[in-house]
Amino acid sequence: MTDGLQRRRSIFPGLLLIVLGLIFLIHRLDPAFGIGHLARIYWPFLIILWGIAKLIDHFAAQSAGQLRAPLLSGGEAALLVLLAIVLIAFISRDWIHGRFPGVNIDLAPFHQSYSQSRELASRTIPAGSHVAIETGRGNITVHGNGGNDLRVSFNESAAGANESAADDRMKDVEIVIEQTGNGYSIHPVHQSDFHETVGVDLDVQLPKSASVTLHTPHGDINASGIAGVVDASTEAGDIEIHDAASDVAAQLQKGDVRITGVAGNVALRGRGNDVEIGEVAGNATLDGPFLGSTIVRKVKGTTRVTSPWADLTIAQLNGRLEMDSGDIQLSDVTGFAKLQTHNKDIDAENVAGQLDVIDSHGDVKIVYANPPRDALDVTNDSGEVDVTLPGRSSFQISAFSRSGEVESEFQDPSLKTTGEEKDGRLDGQFGMKSGAPAPKITITTSYGTISLHKSS
């Protein structure tokens, strides 16, 4: 008490308890209710509620001749922290449900997920049609068939306090097939409601000659046996495409990619984890930071890989390119190859065409099964360079290591190995016949040894 006056208690803690009780009651009655969605939008209501409570406290204290309540008491602060924790938990749950459809994080034991499958009546569409397939949440699977029939089946999934509540949400969803200016569009309607998006997995069989555009923000995409162009995109999911008789374009933000058996070009953009691309008759282009293992094999055209840590161009990859967090391995290339990277070890074997390597803070190892026919140019910074050539090779060489050594198993009067203070150098030629051209080998590195080995 101060001057004999009693301090009034605030009504704000009681209002906070009412809000907390309403949140838990709503969640108990309907666990799928979008409390997190409401909290993200209407959280400023708490500030309004606080202001109203303080105004009521002020006028009530004046009329009763009491001291007004403090702006924020310790008990009120504790209740606000508790309410914030609860709301953040609901917001996180709803975000995870939307971002990762297959992951269920429930805040009560009463929440269950239910599903049901349905199928549309088949219809005939012209050969070579373009078909756009989209779902707001769910997987897309597409198969090419030999006829002109379009068949659509789908599986719905929804959360609810009981099966009847989930069925009510799923029955509102319809799958429509619309004829557009350049083909057909297949997509759900009424997929999102006040609670959350109903999951709709689409399985579509269509004429093999069709071209398709496939999109789902949250789900996997699988396409096979399509003769037309395939364009697939997902923000969170895996992409798998097989046996495509034309060009393939894929884009994603999180997930794995596997594309094999493509008669045209392959273009992959975005970011993700593991990537596998193989048996491509055209060019293969990868653009973006893919953080897992990247494997590319048997590309008849040109392979181009662009990322924050590598820029690779490879012509006629008969063998395999493999990249991970620390290494780049390349084997069996008929054409030229240019490898530019940093903080990675490079291991290249059997590159028949010109090979250019630019690296830093990594070791470089190059092995030729046959005598080189084109130039080899290696520029390295702070790393070893190891080159193995058949003993019957002929070449010109200029190798220089700053603050390092140069070692050679090839012996010829024209090969000059010199050392200047801490630097090593090798210049000259080997096995050259009069008038016969020989490829030029140029190697430069620093703080590393250059080794030239002879194989049988």
Separation of termini? 100 Å
Oligomer: single chain
> How many strands appear in the DSSP assignment?
32
The level of helicity is 10-25%
The coarse silhouette is flat
Protein described:
Among the domains are: 12-99, no CATH class; 111-219, no CATH class. The protein contains 5 helices and 32 strands. It has helices at residues 12-29, 35-42, 45-64, 74-99, 163-171; strands spanning 112-119, 123-124, 130-134, 140-145, 149-160, 174-180, 183-189, 199-207, 211-218, 221-226, 230-236, 239-244, 248-252, 257-262, 266-270, 275-280, 284-287, 294-307, 310-323, 327-333, 337-341, 345-351, 355-360, 364-367, 376-381, 385-390, 395-402, 406-408, 416-420, 423-430, 440-446, 450-455. Helix 1 packs parallel to helix 4 (74-99) and helix 2 packs across helix 4 (74-99). The chain is flat, with a radius of gyration of 33 Å.
Keywords, please?
456 residues, alpha/beta, 32-stranded mixed sheet, 5 helices, 32 strands, flat
Task: Explain the layout of strands and helices.
Layout: H1 12-29, H2 35-42, H3 45-64, H4 74-99, E1 112-119, E2 123-124, E3 130-134, E4 140-145, E5 149-160, H5 163-171, E6 174-180, E7 183-189, E8 199-207, E9 211-218, E10 221-226, E11 230-236, E12 239-244, E13 248-252, E14 257-262, E15 266-270, E16 275-280, E17 284-287, E18 294-307, E19 310-323, E20 327-333, E21 337-341, E22 345-351, E23 355-360, E24 364-367, E25 376-381, E26 385-390, E27 395-402, E28 406-408, E29 416-420, E30 423-430, E31 440-446, E32 450-455
Parallel strand pairs: 3-7, 3-9, 4-8, 4-10, 9-11, 10-12, 11-13, 12-14, 13-15, 14-16, 15-17, 16-18, 17-18, 20-22, 21-23, 22-24, 23-25, 24-26, 25-31, 26-32, 27-31, 28-32
Antiparallel strand pairs: 1-5, 2-5, 5-8, 6-7, 18-19, 19-20, 19-21, 27-30, 29-30
Helix pairs in contact: 1-4, 2-4
